[in-house]
Specification:
Rossmann fold, five-stranded mixed β-sheet, 3 domains, single chain, seven-stranded mixed β-sheet, Herpes Virus-1, alpha+beta
Amino acid sequence: MAQDDVFKKVVAHCKEYGFVFPSSDIYDGLGAVYDYGQMGVELKNNIKNYWWQSMVLLHDNIVGIDSAIFMHPTIWKASGHVDAFNDPLIDNRDSKKRYRADVLIEEQIAKYEDKIEKEVTKAAKRFGDSFNRELFCETNPKVLAEKQKRDALNERYATAMNAMDLNELRQIIVDEEIVCPISGTRNWTEVRQFNLMFSTEMGSTSDGAMKVYLRPETAQGIFVNYLNVQKTGRMRVPFGIAQIGKAFRNEIVARQFIFRMREFEQMEMQFFVRPGSELEWFNKWKETRLAWHKALGFGDESYRFHDHEKLAHYANAATDIEFRMPFGFKEVEGIHSRTDFDLSQHEKFSGKNIKYFDPDTNESYTPYVIETSIGVDRMFLSVMCASYCEEKLENGETRVVLRLPAALAPVKLAVLPLVKKDGLPEKAREIMNELKFNFNCYYEEKDSIGKRYRRMDAIGTPYCVTVDHQSLEDGMVTLRERDTMEQRRVAISELCSIIQDKVTITSLLKKLS
């Protein structure tokens, strides 16, 4: 199946089975804003719980906070968002569509990388076990040619972005002959800057109102609270502060479903370290965060690091963890070494001393910061795309199944009476009422047992138990596993112990520890 078709099916599946709905759906929706349905909110909460516990539970030097969405407007002046939180915007005159110039160029770089990968894949199939990838990439003329184009474009792009040379960005688009995906033409406008922050007013009267912003990131709430947390928590460097919260950006191009939205949720951790040790910690957190993703079991080949050619003004190292989406490798998490930029700026603009006193060295200094930041919605989308599967069965039928990691699945166990009579529903309810305190259970009695199994497959439920007439006599039920569809008889009294270890967040955390 073509990857575009897979993505369309995932989007349709999300709405059909209660994962994600267009916001304001009965009013024909609101651009790039979505609501999470009854299954989606459970999956999303499980993702957040997995992240939170991996940060706060597994690290005794990381704590959490929940800062306000509205903050003093000077915070955004200090952070550089008021003056510099801009994206380069370009329009195609024929399609009237608007694009981010940097995204168009990055997609062109990705095309060169895809061509390289195709050549490598073809050669690997041709040579089999004797294939030497590194030697092939160093000697194959086609690969070398594509590498040269990619590296030249990368260098030119990084230079233009670091200087924010809008004319050069447009010239790159022209020289690379990048076309509008809609019109197919290269009739581009000039590139111009577009500030992404939403603003509103706070105050009881228009005359006394103060202009405030909906936060475009959650990190600043951590920075302005870091000393409060350090002192009240008696924290010693190195230590971290974690936060999950909403952020808002007036994106130029919000597309690809929930991948890029105007209202989204972030999971961020800022790790405060001694100056000079930041790059060592940066590398440690790179590996730690990649292991967190890989523990979900979607395959190591689905992930890669993408080191930044262009560094933000506050960073001295940056990388993305990219996941293979149906529309290519895309960023799901960023790890950045932010130096002491943020804390120094807030000290300067607030006029307050927020240096850390280190009892080990008997000196005061501004800590450096390592940031790990994930978009919850992007993570949600990567999980859905990796889990969606259409499987051909032996009888010729096709079943749609979400192979979600059991610990993330919205429903862990479906309790199904074989028929709606003879005391089976009552027994099924009894089982569910006993187990619902341990994990999320779902009861259903409508339609044939086969149709109910299919519905549970489609929402990713890892286990189903069927209560039949024999269950009333011997206290046994049929336990069905989602992925293998294998069925076996187990004692009702053993259900909790059989299932619980496999469906709790603890099962994932144990892989990390």
